[in-house]
Write a structure and sequence with these properties.
The chain is an all-alpha fold and about 375 residues long. The protein has helices spanning about 10-30, 30-55, 60-90, 95-115, 120-135, 140-170, 170-180, 185-225, 230-240, 245-260, 265-290, 300-310, 315-330, 340-345, 350-355. The longest helix has about 40 residues, at about 185-225. The radius of gyration is 25 Å and the shape is globular. The model is unreliable at about 135-140 and about 350-368 (pLDDT under 50).
Length: about 375
């Protein structure tokens, strides 16, 4: 039986309907699907460790999964301990920071008064209005904070359980994926699964290296500029940088605020330094460490962040990039979906340029 060939508009309509249906399922299943996908990504990273324990140390599959979980928990505990120690110093210095911030704010008020002819009474009126709005919305803020902690706790618990199950039943899942397709497609499916495991593992390891590099560069920059809590801000910047574009902007605002509260004379240099670090990271570190095979073009990266945040919140922003990378791997290896893979990537390859000739009679002209 020959494959049914549909017109382009029907294919497009089916694709859009499928996207809407899958998006709706992702929204209503956020509590389950978000930690499930996160556990899937992390399990791909720990599969070699679990295989080593089973092959060379003769551990059972359940014990190797448990040891993998303990290793991941130890890494997370180390990060939490670091931030706990650093934040304890920040809390102890908070009264001093508050006094310094008040002093700097007073200087800023003088500058605004002389520059824009806005007297202190008007400035304080604006501040009081903002504080009143903040107080009136305090109930909503408390409710949001409580719900955030509750959802985070559920995310962590479900992620741990899914992580253990995926590692423990990984061979069963692999056999199911291979057997669910026709035998003539088994080689292609095995290639796709192996490539997804390899690329995602490379991506996660690359992210860890990128976090370390950005943390070191930021810590050195802030130390040279004598900004307080340079190490804390550096590690925070490295972790937030996992979220493209938005993470570096948010961490830059925090660093500029701390610099402003502790004097303010270095704030502009902090801003320029963050821009330079982002340029180095985007043009040197990211291509070399993470690799071009995972790279998604800037438009779909930003679009993925927005959609991920709308569907799954903060976790969706982090998971959107590996999700797009998996889609890109699948699309590039299925004949009918290769154009979608090229759309997600950085543009047409040399092979695509040879296939689609561009002449002077068309809109664009390409010179060899």
């Amino acid at each position: 039986m020959k494959d049914l060939k549909l017109p382009f508009l029907q294919k497009l309509a089916l694709a859009l309907i499928s996207i809407v249906i899958l998006g709706y399922i992702a929204v209503i299943g956020k509590t389950i699907l978000s930690p499930l996908f996160f556990a899937f990504i992390m399990s791909l990273l720990f599969v070699p460790f679990a295989n080593f324990l089973e092959r060379y140390l003769r551990f059972s599959r359940a014990v190797s999964s448990l040891f993998s979980l303990l290793l991941m928990a130890a890494m997370m505990a180390g990060i939490i301990y670091f931030f706990t120690v650093q934040l304890s110093d920040f809390v102890n210095d908070f009264p001093q920071l508050q006094r310094q911030f008040t002093k700097t704010l007073h200087s800023l008020q003088l500058w605004i008064s002389h520059t824009f002819n806005v007297n202190f009474a008007m400035q304080m009126d604006y501040l009081n209005q903002g504080l009143d709005k903040l107080v009136n919305s305090s109930g909503a803020i408390i409710g949001f904070t409580f719900s955030m902690f509750t959802s985070t706790g559920a995310f962590v618990v479900f992620s741990i359980l899914f992580f253990i199950f995926i590692l423990n039943y990984r061979r069963t899942f692999y056999s199911f994926i291979i057997s669910v397709f026709e035998e003539k497609h088994s080689a292609k499916v095995q290639e796709i699964v192996s490539e997804i495991q390899r690329i995602i593992k490379q991506y996660i390891i690359g992210l860890f290296i990128q976090i370390i590099i950005v943390s070191i560069l930021t810590s050195v920059l802030l130390t040279l500029l004598h900004v307080k809590y340079a190490l804390l801000l550096g590690v925070l910047t490295g972790l937030l940088n996992v979220i493209p574009y938005i993470g570096i902007i948010f961490s830059c605002l925090i660093a500029c605020l701390i610099s402003f509260a502790t004097g303010g004379d270095k704030t502009l240099f902090v801003l320029v330094g963050y821009v330079a670090i982002h340029a180095v990271d985007a043009n040197i570190t990211l291509p070399l460490v993470v690799g071009s095979k995972v790279k998604i073009n800037a438009f779909f990266t930003f679009l993925g962040l927005l959609v991920g945040e709308a569907v799954w919140g903060i976790s969706g922003m982090f998971l959107s990039i590996p999700f797009l990378a998996i889609l890109k791997i699948i699309f590039e290896r299925i004949d009918g979906l290769k154009p979608w893979g090229q759309l997600l990537g950085e543009g047409n390859t040399g092979r695509a340029r040879k296939k689609y000739k561009i002449t002077k009679n068309i809109i664009l002209e390409e010179k060899e």
